[in-house]
Amino acid sequence: MNDSLVERMANECMTRTSIDLFSGPGGLCTGFKWAGILPLIAVEWTDTTAQTYSVTHNADVLELARIEENTKESQEYLYSFMHESTKTLLIHGDINKVSSKMVKELLLLRYGINSSDETVDVVSGGAPCESFSLAGTRTENDERDDLFSNIIRIARTVNTKMILFENVKGMFSKAKNGKRGALFDYICDTFEDKNVSPSYKLVSREQDTILLRACDYGVPQLRERLFLVAVNTKLTDMVKFTYPEKEYGPGRKYPYLTVQDAIGDLPKVEMGEETTHYRKRKYKNKNREHFISIMRGQYKSDEMNTIIPKHLIEKGLFKENSISSHKAPGHIKRKQELLALIKEKESMKMAFERLTKEGTIKKYRHLFPNTIYSSRNRRLVKTEISFTVTSHCLDEILHPYLNRAISPREAARLQSFPDWYQFAGPYVQFHGDKVQDRYEQIGDAIPPLLAYALAREIIKALQNIK
Predict the structure, then answer these.
(1) Could you report the per-residue pLDDT of 425-444, keeping only the tens digit for each?
(2) Using the 8-state DSSP alphabet, how is residue 144 labeled?
(3) Which of 132, 131, 125 has its CA nearest to residue 151?
(4) Measuring CA to CA, how many Å separate 100 from each of 71, 91, 97, 280, 351?
């Protein structure tokens, strides 16, 4: 490892390194950095999402499209990144085209890491979940089912010590070759293929062990995701990973974080309004105070460092009293009238059913769409945890008492993204477009506080390795 990188890690209290695949806007990366794991290389293919990651984490960006043709200019461009550096390198492009050879050269020439005698500590990634999600079409043998293999390919290329793989709960039940649930077994078997070197051993395949709820780890949201953890078989005697202990909830160390805890301090913005000014408050609720101190980049301890990145302050992108992406969406008059009918704890469908039962639906039927989905326009409850924030959260989540959908910053808070996070791209874009809007970026991400809980256990598991 080059001396300048060692110095940066020491200055920023980083003790381990990673490669961040399918990085998204950087939710996993943020939690890892809070625990002391520095991403050296990241890979992301979506334009605006890559921009969010690069700006927020001060990463250099290698445009993969510029080296697809083997020309003198493309080679010169590639090798312009292969010099000593301490900055994370984000490779913007299709992970299938990120060669193992290039990854090894970048680690060696940029960071001074030779996988034969020293390597990154963990390779992480959550392959796109659309083909696994219960809300999707779940087409059998979808080509996206095998995207996860890139995580294993690169992990073996760099001889990493550990692998962390994240995905949706629907992976457990998806079929392969006509057999329900066989895809999950196939993925696990691929991770543990003993015929390939280096080989890896999963810590667990048990669904009750590997399925984590974000709310149990300080995220104000009921979100379930599976996490597979694999250890290099050469290190299984030394590396003892334990899934993080549930710290939040009834009978545990802390109560659950509620919607009010998460967004109650944010400036009130009505439909179509935006503010960039944040007013600091005092809190009697210790749970809320702790969460807000993390969100505002003010919490630091021996185990956790959430301090605002220096480059954001130096570039004027974040100030003590600033807030970004806090713009309430606008709604047409018909939608405004519809939202006003939805009470606390209700969804659009529940409101329709209530009005039908009351015998007043004829008066309001013109406000409702022909097809009414149960997940659309659900109103948050201040005193409870939020339901899952998804990439469709603009259409799914209503403010607890204002008649509007949540703002991107409110969605980010529910995901535990700090306020200094710089989300790029449009506020709203047609869903399915390659340009991801801010809602979609936020909803697709791994919650940073959940990532932190896992990263903290990775740090502990690796402590016996110098």
Answers:
(1) 999 887 777 789 999 999 99
(2) G
(3) 125
(4) 20, 13, 9, 48, 53
